[in-house]
């Protein structure tokens, strides 16, 4: 991206007709909100993505918002992206499918950053942050929706800030836009602390966003990010933790899966029996997942794949559940956005007698969340390996579409393992795995075993997964 420079906006006289219709439609909504700023500062991709450049967003406009003094909403910088939606309609970036569907990926990103005293120009680091999220969307073809969270594990502005992760929600001012190339909405990035991200994982993003709106210094009604915020909402108001705890108990977790450093091994037969590819372990070369299995896991994770090259687990929530729909004890592994996906007929389901699960420390610490927030609420949870096709899905009794059953609780399709756990066994596992939720890091490797269930779980150092033995 080049330096910030003034750009002749779509409102410039005599130039409107030269602007692509999709771009002009977004500028129209921006002009409605900021009529006094027809030519905002922009960060522009030097080489456009459709010409081979690395940055998917053609432009990021930066506006100065006075907030709303009547609502005690502070002054801030408002960033708006151009490029996740279809700007051109000529298939150079997005396939044009008509006006009735989404425009491109169906959304653009926004970000509201508190304006510091004396600042006369907006910082440019949010533009690179937005480009990073856009690269993830373009490369994975996974889209975001309101309530999603992004685990970043680094201060968003590369400072010493506690704001190291993100939630996503509807922009409070920008309205959905019907362009000639489809509909788009505006999703706002909200910077959060680690403890707030964990609350979103354990409960749901929308619930935590609602709490942030009630705390002025943590965002307020418009969810303005303050990179200098030094306290979490739970430190500011300890009663908010009670609301999260009650929400988890009542609603469970909406996090359906994460990318992870993980592996599994079939202990039922010797590893040298390669005819059935029964040994799926670190360093092995398992069969690839079938297309249908891959799509089913992808829907379960949806936004659970890696978003950057940081050597850490980057869970992104996979929640598309309607908050108006009553929660059922019978969850489903089927896609919510397509017809039912059944296991591939040509992939034989293998029943396993004994399995060994392997996780790195970060993915291992999510096992209690998986058990308490998902399985005890009749749902499923998937770990997808970031180093291969291996996948592990935990399912509860009654989950539709599962090929693991109470009679055969361990079952596999190629490298995809499903483990069915009864409520009674889940309660016991939660007691045995209690130290995974402790503040003190357990000494690795750490092993948990349930011999009568023929199940073993190992928590291993990252180095085991980063440098597997061949």
Q: Quick gist of this model?
A:
The protein has helices at about 20-35, 125-140, 195-200, 205-215, 235, 240-250, 290-300, 360-365, 365-375, 425-430, 460-465, and strands at about 5, 40-45, 60-65, 75-80, 100-115, 150, 165-170, 175-180, 180-190, 255-260, 260-265, 350, 355-360, 380-385, 390-395, 410-415, 415-420, 445-450, 455-460. The chain is of the alpha+beta class.
Compute the gyration radius: what is it?
A: 24 Å
Q: Are there runs of 5+ residues with pLDDT below 50, and where? A: 2-17, 273-286, 303-330, 334-346
Helix content: 10-25%
Sheet with the most strands, sense and barrel status:
9 strands, mixed
The number of helical elements comes to 11
Average residue pLDDT:
83
Please count the beta strands (DSSP E, at least 2 residues each): 19
SSE order, one letter for each helix or strand: EHEEEEHEEEEHHHHEEHEEHHEEEEHEEH
What would you call the shape? globular
Going by helix content, strand content and strand pairing, the class is alpha+beta
Q: How much strand content do the residues show?
A: 15-25%
Distance between the termini: 41 Å
């Amino acid at each position: 991206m080049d330096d910030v420079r003034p750009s002749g906006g779509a409102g410039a006289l005599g130039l409107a007709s030269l602007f692509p219709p999709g771009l002009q439609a977004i500028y129209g909504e921006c002009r409605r909100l900021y009529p006094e700023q027809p030519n905002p500062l922009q960060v522009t991709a030097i080489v456009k993505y459709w010409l081979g450049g690395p940055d998917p967003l053609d432009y990021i406009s930066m506006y100065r918002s006075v907030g709303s003094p009547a609502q005690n909403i502070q002054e801030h910088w408002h960033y708006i992206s151009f490029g996740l939606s279809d700007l051109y309609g000529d298939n150079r970036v997005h396939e044009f499918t008509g006006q009735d569907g989404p425009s491109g990926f169906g959304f653009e990103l926004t970000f509201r950053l508190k304006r510091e005293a004396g600042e006369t120009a907006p910082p440019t680091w949010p533009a690179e942050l937005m480009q990073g999220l856009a690269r993830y969307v373009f490369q994975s073809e996974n889209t975001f929706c309101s309530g999603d969270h992004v685990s970043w594990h680094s201060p968003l502005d590369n400072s010493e800030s506690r704001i190291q992760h993100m939630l996503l929600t509807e922009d409070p001012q920008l309205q959905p836009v019907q362009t000639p190339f489809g509909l788009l909405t505006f999703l706002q990035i909200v910077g959060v602390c680690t403890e707030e991200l964990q609350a979103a994982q354990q409960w749901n993003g929308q619930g935590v966003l609602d709490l942030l709106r009630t705390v002025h210094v943590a965002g307020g009604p418009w969810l303005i990010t303050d990179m200098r915020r030094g306290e979490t909402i739970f430190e500011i108001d300890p009663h908010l933790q009670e609301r999260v705890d009650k929400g988890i108990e009542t609603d469970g977790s909406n996090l359906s899966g994460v990318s992870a450093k993980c592996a599994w091994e079939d202990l039922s037969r010797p590893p040298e029996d390669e005819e059935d590819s029964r040994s799926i372990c670190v360093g092995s070369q398992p069969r690839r997942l079938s297309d249908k299995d891959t799509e089913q896991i992808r829907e379960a994770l949806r936004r659970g794949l890696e978003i950057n090259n940081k050597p850490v687990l980057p869970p992104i929530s996979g929640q598309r559940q309607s908050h108006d729909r009553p929660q059922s004890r019978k969850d489903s592994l089927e896609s919510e956005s397509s017809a039912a996906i059944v296991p591939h007929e040509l992939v034989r389901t293998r029943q396993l007698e004994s399995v060994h699960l392997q996780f790195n420390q970060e993915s291992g610490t999510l096992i209690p969340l998986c058990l308490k927030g998902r399985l005890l609420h009749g749902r499923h949870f998937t770990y997808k390996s970031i180093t291969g096709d291996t996948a592990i899905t935990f399912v509860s009794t009654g989950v539709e579409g599962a090929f693991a059953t109470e009679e055969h609780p361990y079952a596999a399709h190629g490298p995809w393992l499903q483990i069915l756990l009864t409520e009674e066994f889940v309660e016991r596992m939660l007691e045995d795995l209690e130290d995974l939720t402790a503040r003190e890091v357990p000494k690795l490797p750490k092993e948990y075993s349930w011999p009568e269930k023929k199940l073993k779980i190992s928590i291993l150092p990252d180095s085991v997964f980063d440098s597997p033995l061949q």
